[in-house]
Design a protein that fits this description.
The complex is a heterodimer of chains A (116) and B (111).
Chain A lengths: L3 E4 L2 E5 L4 E7 L6 E7 L6 E7 L4 E4 L2 E6 L4 E6 L8 E8 L10 E3 L3 E6 L1
Parallel strand pairs in A: 2-11
Antiparallel strand pairs in A: 1-3, 3-8, 4-5, 4-9, 6-7, 7-8, 9-10, 9-11
Chain B lengths: L3 E4 L2 E4 L5 E7 L5 E7 L5 E9 L2 E4 L6 E3 L9 E3 L8 E8 L5 E3 L3 E5 L1
Parallel strand pairs in B: 2-11
Antiparallel strand pairs in B: 1-3, 3-8, 4-5, 4-9, 5-6, 7-8, 9-10, 9-11
Classes of the chains: A mainly beta (116), B mainly beta (111).
Amino acid sequence: GENVEQHPSTLSVQEGDSAVIKCTYSDSASNYFPWYKQELGKGPQLIIDIRSNVGEKKDQRIAVTLNKTAKHFSLHITETQPEDSAVYFCAATDPISNFGNEKLTFGTGTRLTIIP
Amino acid sequence: NAGVTQTPKFRILKIGQSMTLQCTQDMNHNYMYWYRQDPGMGLKLIYYSVGAGITDKGEVPNGYNVSRSTTEDFPLRLELAAPSQTSVYFCASRSQADTQYFGPGTRLTVL
């Protein structure tokens, strides 16, 4: 099945600076790559996603880039704010599926701390 | 819409006890999932369902069972609880656009 590695495991950034989290995946057939934000005591929430036919996607201060050749994708957060402090997870679809894109493999998470 | 709801929020079990974690979604999604999250780890898929009456194993199914009799409900059953099942359990449902929506989680401790 798919294997997703995520780095770094912890990241501290001064408020207003940018944060970058990187993930690699193993199966070149994966075609959907979401990023989730998990606040303390809550379930993960989708913040942005990208499909394999696109190289970059942006939504206000958040962007995701995908390099299919190198099999890695990254989350970029600009002008960070205290409310960006959370755990972020990347994921990739498991191409070995019965019904198509029904399973995600998650990275181990990055704890992002924004320093005021 | 309430989205995905889970009960209970917290539970302490003794070794060997059984329990059912409840999950309900009101978005009419066909796909539903159960994950467990251990400290410092990502989410591991336990079981999933692609519609009423259809379930399949995920990465870590041992010690668990599921059923899917309706579109809305996807309960997870723990038989003979073991300390290794201490974890936070998340239920999720998936839209047609591939987005998974997660519930608030159930924190389970087995002593």
